[in-house]
What we know:
- The complex is a heterodimer.
- Chain A is an alpha/beta fold.
- Chain A has helices spanning 47-54, 90-101, 108-125, 141-155, 171-188, 199-205; strands at residues 10-18, 22-31, 36-41, 62-67, 75-78, 159-163, 191-195, 208-213, 216-222, 225-226.
- Chain A has 6 helices and 10 strands, in the order E-E-E-H-E-E-H-H-H-E-H-E-H-E-E-E.
- Chain B is mainly α.
- Chain B has a domain at 70-270: MetI-like (MetI-like fold), CATH 1.10.3720.
- The termini of chain B are far apart.
- The relative contact order of chain B is 0.10.
- At the A-B interface, strand 5, helix 2 and helix 4 of A face helix 7 and helix 8 of B.
Amino acid sequence: MNHANSKPLVTLNDLTVGYDEPLVSKINMEIRPGEIISIVGSSGIGKTTLLRTIAGLVKPLEGSINLNIQPRGGLGYIPQKLGLIRHASVAHNVGLGARAGTSFKEDPLTWWKRRNQRVNDAIELMGLSDKADEPTRRLSGGQQKRVATARTLAQQPQLLLADEFLSELDEDNIDVVVRAVINYLEESNAAMILIEHNIERAVEISHRTFSVREGKLTELSDFGSEQE
Amino acid sequence: MIRRKTTFSLIGIGTVIAALVVFDSLIGGDWSPLFGGKENFVEFWQEDLWPPDWSLLEARKYPACEASIGFFCSKAYIGMLETIKMAFVATVLGFIGAILLSPLAARNLVPKAISFPVRIFMAATRSLPSLIWAVIFIAIVGLGPLAGVLAMTFYTIGYLGKLQYEEMEGMRSDPLEASRAMGLSRSEITFLVVIPEASNGLLSQLLFMFEYNVRHGTVLGLVGAGGIGYYLNFYIGLFMYRQVMTFIIVIFVVVVLLDLLSMFIRSFVNEESDVKRPSWKTIFLPPEAAVKEHLEKTDE
Ligand SMILES: Nc1ncnc2c1ncn2[C@@H]1O[C@H](COP(=O)(O)OP(=O)(O)OP(=O)(O)O)[C@@H](O)[C@H]1O
Ligand SMILES: [Mg+2]
């Protein structure tokens, strides 16, 4: 796929992220519609911090982020801890995504219907139809990850930030989840930044893989060898 | 580590000693009434308190009773019911006020410039006990249940509001972050994320507050703000302690029943109850019997 001629969705200019001390410095990167980027790196190195900074939840220490997406519903985020409301039903959780991703003003009369349609489709795609009314705290770890995925699919964001949402899933679950997400990204020409601890899987899923090491983000050109 | 432990025990022992010293200075070092007090109490109990005047549980003479069961026309029933009604209304109104204000006081939801003044307001409504608020509202709206309801509502907003914003501040941050990143509005996040996530805590606090308001509602009548306290005050004024005793027993029974009821309702939202839910029966049984009953139920 050629992503080179479309306008970037995200541009990072000399971005330095961290809390008090910098964790990852001087990142320059452009992400275009349809691209899948993965980031690997050891624990505690600052991968989640980078994702939260792009999501606008942490202030950059230096540099800037240009987002070329809708402020409401354009950005999807699956946190490492998933961000589910434990006491609310699967449908309620997925409904939050659908709410962010559908515009009431566009057509108030069909809004309710459009939203429900998205919720039902996403729940069915993730194989959770029989759990729709169950509070999410009663689901297994794998099922909870599918709820978080369904929430994002119902939202249909232009840019998806996913933090290790494939780890601890068994092969069958990974297949279902990855296929659904990649299908969506291709159909809608949306982009994804995926944090993934398994390098092989990261390379397999994404177009470009980056590694965080010693406070720098570098692109891996081929599996295993690094490009300076 | 060890040093930390000893520091904590020293602080603990010091606090207890300080309490005893302060106590001693409060009563001017005269501990004798505590020992002579026992005979006084036995005498008071035998001559003035026991047996309680159970006739208060029967229909009062005037106005004529129209209910088929006399108890429903008794002073105890009428007074207690009025207190419960007042507590119910005040808890519902106070809950609505508190749930609208507390998201504006939670520091993880709004900037300090908003949370600070809201907290000050809540602290102000909480700073005086509801009995004092009742006196103030009596001055404004006159004697009767209206003043009592307003006083309890006011106090409930401050008290319940504090419990609520603390509950909200303690919630996990990842649901907040996911919904903020999605671009949901502040009110959507409050009503669709924060309140559902905090719902368990909010419900137990609500039940606790109702029970609290029933208990405190009983004293509001002492200043003329309606409820069973009116009768308490009346009989205390006449030194008719057998009648007072009846009301105290009624209040005690009602409070214990409310406590059991709220325990039962809360068991439906506890996370442990996903595995096991107590039946109505078990809350009345002693612990060992309850466990046995529960095991039999789950065996089926
Ligand atoms: N809110 C915070 N305030 C201050 N420091 C933080 C905060 N959150 C994380 N950190 C610290 O920042 C560092 C990087 O954390 P981060 O979560 O970004 O790592 P990570 O690369 O995602 O690791 P993992 O693979 O284990 O998820 C850690 O040392 C962590 O303790
Ligand atoms: Mg992380």
